[in-house]
Amino acid sequence: MDVSKPDNFKVSLDVIEKTMTGAGPSNYHPRIRQAMSLPVLGHLHTETLKIMDDLKEGIKYLFQTRNSLTFCVSGPGHAALECALTNLIEENDVILIVCSGIWGTRAGNIAKRLNANVKMLYKHVGEQVSLKETRECFRMYKPKIFFMVHGESSTGMIQNNIEDYGNLCREFDCLFIVDCVITLGCTPLFVDKWKIDIAYTGTQKVLNAPPGISPITFSQRAYDKIVMRKSLVKSYNYDAILLGEYWNCFPLRPRIYHHTICSSLLYGLREAIAIFIENGGLEASWEKHGKVTRKFHSILEKNGLQLFIENAENRCPSVTSIKVPDNIDTHKIISYAMNKYKVEIGNGVGMTLGKIFRIGLMGVNCKDELAERVANILIEAIRAIENEKVVSKI
Amino acid sequence: MDVSKPDNFKVSLDVIEKTMTGAGPSNYHPRIRQAMSLPVLGHLHTETLKIMDDLKEGIKYLFQTRNSLTFCVSGPGHAALECALTNLIEENDVILIVCSGIWGTRAGNIAKRLNANVKMLYKHVGEQVSLKETRECFRMYKPKIFFMVHGESSTGMIQNNIEDYGNLCREFDCLFIVDCVITLGCTPLFVDKWKIDIAYTGTQKVLNAPPGISPITFSQRAYDKIVMRKSLVKSYNYDAILLGEYWNCFPLRPRIYHHTICSSLLYGLREAIAIFIENGGLEASWEKHGKVTRKFHSILEKNGLQLFIENAENRCPSVTSIKVPDNIDTHKIISYAMNKYKVEIGNGVGMTLGKIFRIGLMGVNCKDELAERVANILIEAIRAIENEKVVSKI
After folding, report:
1. Residue A257 backbone phi and psi in degrees, to 5
2. Which of B262, B273, B365 to mutate to probe the A interface, most A CBs <10 Å?
3. Share of chain A above pLDDT 90, in %
4. Are A6 and B60 an interchain contact pair (Cβ–Cβ within 8 Å)?
5. Complex ipTM tops 0.90
6. pLDDT band at B388 (very low <50, low <70, confident <90, very high)
7. May I ask the CATH class of domain A30-276?
8. Which residues are reported to carry the modification N6-(pyridoxal phosphate)lysine (chains A, B) (predicted)?
């Protein structure tokens, strides 16, 4: 043989359980782990198709939409983002992207690859955009597509008044894409009422499901734009019409084979949505996330820590961002919490790297005891690292 | 609420174990099911990165390559195919695609989306291409990229002498992509020795791992073409350079965050490769698949069934295609086997739909007893359906 067997596999796979309180993935519920261990099914088996049908109904409920073109992309949240953009964008289409963290940047990156005419509406990291300045950009650029992040996981900010932007888009005959990766399930979101044309989310945040299968929904207006395209969608895997045919979104068309879906990921997501509904569904989850996060914030502030998003109304109830005290190395804090307690504290990402901690209390991890525990561990870690520095100075 | 909670989730998830002897996915080994139930890890956790490093070594061994740009795409086998094409193709690039089943058609579909100048070398379904006619096409079209399927799952045919085509590609300064989805692990494949520039595979065939994470490898020549591109790769998710940076394929560059990988799928694949190596690795697996499949074929032929691929040398040792006897409805046979025995017999797909049965004996499913059992069930089912027709005629 040209290449011999690697030795790496002589050591058995060994995975310890951590408390996943970074910006995601969050912990699996034990029932989700159980679901993931079920036997594999084929991508066109009756049972698989039934699970997909169930999932569609679950996702429509979570998004609060009646869109028939609602399904999952077989890939991470990034794949859903790319699916949204790649289906809508044709060469030279003007897309306006609000950017106050990494997700706007990422959307811009993808739109450029697709030869869109990309207009970025940059805000300071963690700062909300206003309707007024957005309207000015609409007047100036006449975008065909508008992209906005509901909750920015890199800063912990939530964009309020999404509904106003939906109305603005209708006024300018523009399609409205909203990234709901960290907001779905933790805070009100009404895709139809808010006139959102494409919304997508990740499964590994509030839903506690495995990543790798990402819900997305398309309005009739988005569908119309796609079927009226002059050019082919640049991707087969992300082609929304083909995916819709596989997911049986068009009752009058036959179901097609599109790709080999991972049945295990379907099981995980189905179990996650079942648990979510059993626990009271959207209203109960919104209330829980709001309450626990406010308590979490108050413990942090009582202990002298500062939240990165100053206005309480602009704080996302799933991911909290905390300013790093002066002269503190985030890596040391993160290692301290992980090594001593197996508790994840997230670092910033992109522009916020080293400047904030990010802590997610999502789904099964959203509870008072854990909020207290993580807050205490963060405070302990900061004190320990500060003391270490004092000692080393002496 | 605009959309109320769906009732679908009141019924618990219930998945029965089937004998997965269609064209894939194949059954998980119990250890893989165990691995899938392990706790989730983050996409940049030390343990996750170690598993990814292990996987790279495992994949290099399986592909028999030393390519440093070797990783997995987070998506099904189709995603790996799209990753191969989307990184190599620039507008108007001539790509020559051999097509004698659905995979050539699929590659052509994707290449057209990317505005390649697509030249198809069509063969009858199940017929091999010859080096001579390929060379003529090379002379005529001067392709920059050549695409060939090693084992065509829609027909059960294996393309012999891949090495000759590697040499041809070098002669014409053309890049060579080979689809190894159903061949990896069941029959000799030497990516480096055979001068293949991109090879990719699926995990749900011979490896018995979950689908959704697909190994791919790029040669230095493929890498050079990608970095010399004049236009951006049309996809962020499939951008091989960014994926290589996440998978730490470039030792001198820092590891980046690219997307949230599904740790559960990594566990499943790692366990699958560990089992594959423990069972003797490539040579043992090649021998087993050859032997069991020959036995399977001989039982079928003894019972009057005809194999679809006439020349024994052109039969793929993982997926067997069997001609459907005259006037037999494949759906009835497939339902009979599934309902009575929970054993999967695959239908044809694309041009072969209703014309062949496809049976896969892959990895843990590749054993004499199962070969006998599935052959007997197929024969029983055909007789039962034939008798049913006789009775209904009377």
Report:
1. -85, 120
2. B262
3. 96
4. yes
5. yes
6. confident
7. alpha beta
8. 205
